[in-house]
Amino acid sequence: KAEETMEMKYSELAELDKKHFFHPTTSFKQQQAQGPKFIFTEGKGIYLKDVRGKTVIDGLSSLWNVNIGHGREELGIAAMKQMKQLAFSSTFATNSHERVIELAEKVAKMAPGDLNMTFFTSGGSEANDTAFKTVRHYWQLKGKTAKKKIITRNKSYHGVSMGASSATGLPAFRAFPSLAPDFLYVDSSIEDLERLIAEEGADTIAAFVSEPVQGSGGVNPPPEDYFKKIRALCDRHDILFIADEVITGFGRTGTTFGMNNYDTVPDIMVIAKGITSGYAPLGGMVISEKLKNELIELSDGVFMHGYTYSGHPMCCAVALENLRIIEDEKLIENVQNMGDEFQKGFKWLADKHDVISDTRGIGLLGAVEIMKDKETKTRFDEPVSVKVIEEALNHGLLGRSIIYEGQDTLAFAPPFCINKEEVETVISIIDKSMTTVLNQLK
Ligand code: PLP
């Protein structure tokens, strides 16, 4: 009886979903044919529960963002307290409020080097666009008006606003006419970047942007010493270095920021996701003290860029509470410890399954690459990762399959609160699912 009721509730909602909800990043045809796979109603820790009563492990922390895990009431209380006290006030021009000041100070304390001043946005795409506009504005103020181009890496993901999608090195996201001009794409080798700078001329290049570890493009850690060399190259050519820490920021890789792993301080850091663990939409651009001082000195008018929700009080209050929890509960230490278990689990999977050609990752960010024959680097005709992810769902694990650019990758990034037993469950579900799918292919 209870099951019937749940099924009815699902059907009603699924019909309405198909009728009225324009899903992000979705195939229209698939949505209409299948309806929503899950309609989630509750979350607790690493688990999500749906309207039909099924519980699944949120193996990607939803969109690599629910870092502290689901169901933390403290964040709701912080949001309510702030809404009761001051739901909204503008931060345009010289207006300010307590929470945004406290959060900007907190971010400056956490950020490496002299990254000290934050511009807030509602998410990562807006934050990237803000960074791109800021670097171009900066060079304009310095009288170097030709320095407009932004260099970005192939397989990078920076979001979907006009600037951010133009900066994204996955062509699938750029399949729209008339995106933003002056973005250039390079492979992940220093030589390729040097060649491009020489061809284009450093006097036309404003900035280089990169994720510390590429996320949506397949979980790709950088080549050895990559960022140290990038930093030196950028300095040599007067090119600003933007690190997109949207996934890696606030602990995902076992250090506060991804760039800490590579002892490199960018000129600008882009943040979002983990700053609120997804409990409220918030992002930002953090700039260095040097850049800040130059902007103050050179600017002769108003910086004509700001979002209504730049520094939204409730989002800032939620971020402060989220960062308090990450610190008080030593969650970044847990990312290190559980990250070791998680990465070990991937290596164990690779030993067991011949078709795993590579395992990649750092902290609680990891991926498994699949090939039909790793010796000859032959792929399966159809991506196997899609089927493995589907099968894993049958065993109660949500993950992502990444098939851009001919890849066949399984990606996982569980919440920071995961424990050893839960890591083992995740690995054993991947193992079982791979076995099932590979047997079907025989
Ligand atoms: N940058 C990176 C590295 C991301 O992974 C994402 C989102 O996945 C973004 C930017 C875009 O952020 P948002 O979706 O909040 O606009």
UniProtKB/TrEMBL annotation:
Domain of life: Bacteria
Signal peptide per UniProt: none
SUPFAM superfamilies with a match to the protein in the record: PLP-dependent transferases
Pfam families listed in its UniProt record: Aminotran_3 (PF00202)
Keyword hit for Transferase: yes
GO-annotated molecular function: transaminase activity
PROSITE patterns associated with the record: AA_TRANSFER_CLASS_3
Keyword rRNA-binding: no
Alphabetical UniProt keywords: Aminotransferase, Pyridoxal phosphate, Transferase
Stated family: Belongs to the class-III pyridoxal-phosphate-dependent aminotransferase family.
PANTHER family: AMINOTRANSFERASE (PTHR43094), AMINOTRANSFERASE CLASS-III (PTHR43094:SF1)
Official protein name in the record: Aspartate aminotransferase family protein
